[in-house]
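Checklist before submission:
- one chain only
- standard amino acids only
- sequence pasted in full

Submission:
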Amino acid sequence: MKKNFTLLVLLFVFIHSNSQSIEVGARGGYAYTWLSNNNVSNAGSEEDLVASFAYNYGLFLGYDINHRYSLEADVLYGTLTQNYKGKFIDNGILPEGTSYQTGETYTSQSLLYTISIPFLLQYNTRSGFYAELGPEYQFITDANYTATYSNPPANSNYNVLSEFAKSNIAAMLGLGWRLKIARPQGLLAFVNIRFEYGLTDMQGVDAFGQNLNVTSYNPIYSGAKPYYSNYQATHTLAASINAGLYYRFARHYKGNSPSSRGRVY
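Returned file contents:
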């Protein structure tokens, strides 16, 4: 732990001493999100995925390594949502005890509260366009499941934090545009789109709120009539539109060539 902390401090000092500028700002976004699980996706009309939207907001810190490359780290509070709907084709009882009838419909939602920390390497053009790529570390702080059933009417609402993994690692790709407000330093703005794919298994619950975890005996995968034939991992996906404001504390490179003077935006 001490060794890792020392390396982090040395990296921070190196970047700071060689950077053209330091950027501090606030950002927020609106996202289209998924909790992707093959068992749910292949369940047919009984478990249909519905368009799900979430949000994020927070702060970021940026370092320009040179006029082409920069680093950004964010701390974002937000949500991750998956909505479902379905219609039962016959009568039965779910493994966890919920009974259902032929033709009964329902809607449900898994809502996760998250803290996300992306670390991104950015490639910048002189026009203001940039691309970014890197990992995102996501921590799940809370998770709730809600459902509304028809015929007869019924509602479910309970906490499912223990069913989800405590954290998630995702790969992130972004494309954006920086907007000049003042130069060479001062207030600036940006807009971008980001795409994320979760690399680790989120586990969680299905459209009925059934625990998908297999660390202990689970009736949905075993018994005389299992609901799913085998275990499938759950991965996060997200596509977001984001915007923000930031202040650039500009510094300058050594040298007099135009290319050494940093960004023009």
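Reviewer check: Residues 2-18 form the longest helix (17 residues).
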